[in-house]
Specification:
Elements (H helix, E strand, L loop, with lengths): L4 H19 L2 H16 L7 H21 L39 H7 L4 H12 L4 H8 L3 H14 L10 H16 L3 H7 E10 L11 E2 L1 H13 L6 E7 L2 E8 L2 E11 L2 E8 L8
Parallel strand pairs: 1-6
Antiparallel strand pairs: 1-2, 3-4, 4-5, 5-6
Length: about 290
């Protein structure tokens, strides 16, 4: 299949966005994108632009489904909570990984975590329909199922992740709330923090068994505050943080010894922090 440089630049971020949302892994997504293009170059078939897009999306999506269904991708043996690999939305190499398909829908850490509750086919259909607005006919051709079946699977998937519907994706409003959270945490203003946190807030700390982290989710505002205050007591001298755009939302990027030590992301609904995701696993952090 002949793919021009211009087409490559157009399709690459699209394929990455699909694969990353499917897998929650930057490395695996990049590998599948490269694999998809390599296979496409080997096909002796002159396709139209639309057909190229459909064909590439089909190859990448089905490869993601294979990965999701394979034993190596199952996370039963993962130590502690699993968080998706945070995606810092800054230009890397020759392209912005989110590129022209930087829809907020289906990109947040909260949404990607919720996707873990879906079967692989449900995940694919939900993303292709909701985040990338493919028609049911296009989706049916991509995953090789009947159009009516795709509609039913989409409806079932939506019901399974219905609680994520109230997520706030307003970046500036959420950043103001995160900034206020940081200030209150720095002075350990318990009352202000309790105002910001949902009563039933849950904190997920992902160390992957490599670094120290809570091996179970931490439940309730009082327990979450106790955990965060405990962390503050052990902050080293060379610690500093930045608020950056991570997965389309404001997140706290923490540095120790000039390296990223952790990334803290939030699920915000009705101006309340409902979930907190602390990713400490060094394999999931930028170098």
């Amino acid at each position: 299949m002949q793919i021009s440089n211009e087409e490559y630049k157009t399709f690459k971020p699209l394929l990455f966005s699909i694969c990353y949302r499917m897998l929650g892994s930057i490395v695996e997504a990049e590998d599948i994108v490269q694999e998809t293009f390599l296979k496409a170059y080997q096909i002796n078939d002159d396709q139209t632009l639309d057909n190229k897009k459909a064909y590439l999306c089909k190859m990448a999506t089905n490869r993601c489904l294979d990965v999701l269904k394979s034993a190596r991708h199952r996370r039963e043996q993962y130590i502690g909570p699993w968080n998706p690999v945070p995606l810092l939305l800054e230009k890397t190499d020759d392209f912005d990984p989110a590129g022209v398909v930087l829809q907020k829908e289906g990109l947040s850490i909260a949404y990607l975590r919720m996707m873990e509750h879906l079967a692989p086919d449900e995940r694919a259909i939900l993303l292709l329909r909701e985040a990338f607005t493919f028609s049911y006919l296009e989706i049916a051709n991509i995953i090789e199922k009947k159009e009516e079946n795709c509609r039913k699977i989409f409806s079932r998937a939506k019901q399974k992740i219905s609680r994520i519907e109230g997520e706030s994706l307003h970046y500036e409003k959420n950043k103001s709330l995160v900034d206020y959270f940081i200030k209150a945490l720095q002075v350990q203003n318990r009352d202000a923090l309790l105002e910001l946190l949902s009563e039933n807030v849950t904190l997920y700390s992902d160390g992957g068994g490599i670094v120290k982290a809570a091996v179970r989710p931490i439940l309730s505002s009082s327990n979450v505050l106790a955990f965060l205050f405990g962390i503050l007591k052990n902050v080293p001298q060379d610690f500093y943080f930045e608020v950056k755009n991570v997965n389309g939302q404001p997140a706290i990027v923490n540095h120790i010894n000039r390296s990223v030590q952790s990334i803290i992301s939030f699920y915000i609904t009705n101006s309340k922090i409902t979930e907190i995701y602390i990713t400490l696993n060094p394999e999931k952090l930028p170098g």
